[in-house]
Amino acid sequence: MRYFHPLILRLFFVVGVFFALSAGAQDAFGPTLGKISAQGRVYLGYREAMPPFTYVLPGGTQPTGYVWDICLHVVKALEARVGKPLEVVPVVVSDNARPMLIKNNVVDLDCGGAANTVARQKQVALSVTLYVSDVKILVRSDSGLAMPADLAGKRIVTVSGGSERQLKRMALEKNISMQHQLANSPADAMTLLREGRTDGIAAEDATLSILRAGKAEFRLLDVVLATEPLALMFPLGDASFKALVDETLIGLMKRGEMTAIYDKWFMSPLPSESVSLDLPMSQALKAAILTPSDTPVN
Questions:
Q1: pLDDT, tens digit, 9 for 90 and up, residues 51-61
Q2: Is residue 145 within 8 Å of 139, Cβ to Cβ?
Q3: CATH number of the domain enclosing 207
Q4: CA-to-CA distance for 248 and 106, rounded, in angstroms?
Q5: Which whole number is the average pLDDT over 87-113?
Q6: Who contacts 151 (Cβ-Cβ below 8 Å, separation ≥6)?
Q7: How many domains does the chain have?
Q8: pTM of the full predicted structure?
Q9: Alpha-carbon span 281 to 278, nearest angstrom
Q10: DSSP letter string over 88-120?
Q11: Same domain, 215 and 145
Q12: Do 146 and 257 fall within a single domain?
């Protein structure tokens, strides 16, 4: 018969209790919240340079932004549900890697603001809509560009993981050929436009509003490439977690807090800028707040 040292037996007991509690938490809360409760922390994905949605201020280390503020309200709801404080662990992510990080349980909740599409809903779960984005094109005011046909043969840049799909769809629908360029960030795209190395930037209206804020030499074309609902992303197949996230967002909408968060980031000067985006809430977003939905677009 083998005998074990009392310290080893105690270690086995502690490990066993940990796994038993973890399993019990997952049974009580569902897989995602159960894991979060057992670990005592929640991993939030964010983009480093996508203001005003999520970004890091110059010289800073912590993310901030419109979607980040909303995510912190979700964290409060998670803490209330598990009955204890949770450590928030920010995880910087790229656009293309976000779904895989969620599927592999590296990120519990993505706070970058993701387009809710039919294709994406096959990979991850998405919340009710928290922003409705119009994809537009920013050009130089003296460019002479006005209509989609004017873009034929022009160089148009998109940010990696951004509006490339919408740009190509418009080119196909309008039967025009453009030279597509790729930039790593909105700031890099703006450098190309300012230096005359591209003719236009295709991106979400909020991103373009930041780039042109206070700069009369740039203007937005009166062309909408696409309208997309943005949402939070989290693991697929966890109905209880989705219900909690959606309940939190809908609560913010009903209490008027979502509108207050919007005004903070879209109607007031940004912490990193001296000017406001001055981008009033669209009718589409007002409708999404009045009647919350997680309906995707193609």
A1: 899 999 988 99
A2: yes
A3: 3.40.190.10
A4: 23
A5: 94
A6: 137, 145, 171, 176, 178, 199, 200
A7: 2
A8: 0.82
A9: 10
A10: EEEEE--TTTHHHHHHTTS-SEEEEEEE-BHHH
A11: yes
A12: no
